[in-house]
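Sample 1 of the test manifest.
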Amino acid sequence: MALSREDLLEAYRRMKTIREFEERVHVEFAKGGIPGFVHLYAGEEASAAGVCMHLTDDDKIASTHRGHGHCIGKGVDVHGMMAEIYGKRTGTCRGKGGSMHIADLDTGMLGANGIVGGGPPLVCGAALAAKIKGTGGVAVAFFGDGASNQGTTLESMNLASVWKLPAIFVAENNGYAEATAAKFSVSCADISTRAAGFGMPGITVDGHDFFAVYDAMRDAVERARQGGGPSLVEVKLDRFFGHFEGDNQSYRAPDEVKQVREQKDCIRRFAQRVTTGHDISPQELAAIDDDVAALIEDAVAQALAAPDPLPSDLTTDVYIKY
Amino acid sequence: MARKILFQQAINEALDQEMARDSTVIVMGEDVVGGTGANGEMDAWGGVLGVTKGLYGKYGNRIMDTPISESAFVGAAIGAATCGLRPVCELMFIDFLGVCFDQIYNQAAKFRYMFGGKAKTPVVIRTMIGAGFRAAAQHSQCLYPIFTHIPGLKVVIPSTPYEAKGLLIQAIRDDDPVIFCEHKALYAMEGEVPEESYTIPFGEANIVREGSDVTIVAFARMVGFAQKAAAALAKEGISCEIIDPRTTSPLDEDTILESVENTGRLVIVDEASPRCGMAADIAALVAQKGFRSLQAPIEMVTPPHTPVPFSGVLEDLYIPSPARIEAAVRKVAEYA
C-alpha cells in the first residue's frame, strides 16, 4: 500500500499531535497541575504513526506506561486523554485510570499499562479473538527494551507463533529501561534477533524514520492478515524526556538529548522528505501545525475546566460489598 | 431429579452445555485436550485429571492446548475476553498463580474499574485447590483468600456436583473475571445434578443443614467434613446449622449473620491458611456486625500456618478433620 498525499498529511498530523501533546503535558506537569506518574513519548512519534497508519478500529493494540503516543496514533480522542491525565470525570476512563491506564476499546486501544510486559499476553488474546471470529483483524503489542527481557513478552511470542496468531510485536528500543541502558540489560545487539528463537521474522528499523517503520509494518501486517502468523519489529529510537517527568536524566550524556533533538527529530526528517519529494508544501504542514496547536490548547482548557469525579464514583464499575 | 453424576462430570457438562449454547465460549489450558502436535491420539488426556475429556471431539479448535506458559495463555484468555470471547482458561493447580498472577490481579481484575466502566472481561479461570493427595507443598494449597482480597475478581468454591455445574454456568455468563476453585478431592464425589442447564447466583449461601445451637461456616471439602461432624454432634444433642457461602466474592454476609443471630455461636472451617484467610475474614465480619448475637468466642478450624507437608502422617494432621470440627463445636456450645 503506497502512501497517498492524504496519508502523508494524516501521518504528519498524528506525529505532530503526539509531539504537541507531550510537550504541553511536560510544561503543565512542571506547573504542578497534573498528578501522578507521567511518562512522555516525545521523540518516538514515527513509531506510533508508522505502526498505526496500517491499522483500523477493528485492529487492536496494547501499549505501555509510555502510552500517550500509541493512544493518539490509534485515534483515541485527545480531549478525553488530556482530561484523563488531569484525573477529570470527562476523561477517557472517567478519571479512574490516569496517564498509565488510558484505554479506549472503541478504537481498539486495549490500554496503556503500568506493568512492564503486561501487554503482550493480552495481545495474544486479542489476536486469538480476531482469528476465531474470522474478522481479519490484527493485534499489535508495543513494548520497550525493558519489557523485551520480561518472561511475559517471551512467552507471548512463543504462544503467538505456535498458535499462528495475527499478532505483531513492536519493540520500541529507546536505549533505556528507566535509567539502565539497553546496551547493558539486553543480551543481544538487536532485540529483533530474538524472533528467530520463536520461529518468526524479525527486523530492526530506524525509528527516527517514519518510512522505515511504515515499510516494515506493511510486511508484518500483511503477513498477519494473510494467516502467516506473528512478526517482531524492533524500532530503535530516542526519547526526548526522561523515564518519567521529574527524572533529571543524569545517566545520559550531558548533550545527548540536545543532539537527538537537533539531529534525529523524526518529525523534522519527515517534513523535509515530504516537502521535497511528495508534492506537499511547507504551508500545508504549517496549517496542520496551527490546527494541532489549537487542539491541544483547547484540550488543556477543557480539561482544566472539567469536573472532578463524584465521590459516588469511588464504588462504581466494580463488584463491591462491604 | 434422580440422576447422579460425579463432580468432575458436572464440570464437563457445564462446559459442554455452554460451548453448545454460545460459540464465543472457548477453553484453553495445559493438556485440556492433550496430544496436540504429538504422534498419537488427540484428546489423549482431556485435562490432567480428565475433566475436559470429550470436548475436543465436539468443539474442535474451540478447545486448545497451550505451551506451559501460564502468563501468556492466562493473559491471552483475558485479552480475548476484552475482545468479545468468553474464554474458560484452566490454571491446572492454584499453586501456579505465582507464574501468572500479574495478568489476573493487575490486568483482568482492574480493567472494568480502571477504564471507567467501559471494559468487560468475561473470563473464567478454573483451577484445582486442596490437600489430601500427598501432592506436597506446591500442588495442594487453598489460595482462594488471595483472590478474594483483590477487588474486581469474583471467587467461586463449589462443594458438590450440583453446585459445580450451576456455579460454573453462572461464571461463564458473568461479565467479570471469575476464579473457579475446584477441590481435587471432590472430583470423584457423586451427587444429584439436573441434566438441563441451570445457574446458581453468586453471593447466595446454601444452608446445607438447619440447626439451632451452633453455626458452622465451611467451604469446599470442609462442607462435607462439617456434615459428618454435625451428624455425630446431633447424637450428643448439639444442633448445628451449616452454611456453605459457595462464593467468597461476593460473600453472602446476611445469611451468616442471620444464622449467628439464631444460634449465638460460630465455628468457621477453612482449609486455607489461617492468617488473612476466609475464617479470619468471617470472624471479623461477625465480630463487627453480629457482636450482640454472640454468646461464645468464635472458633476457627484451619490448618496450622505451615506449608502443606508431604508425609501422609503429617498431611492428615494438617487438614482440618471432622474430629477437630466436633471439638470446636463442643467448645463453643459449652461456653457459658
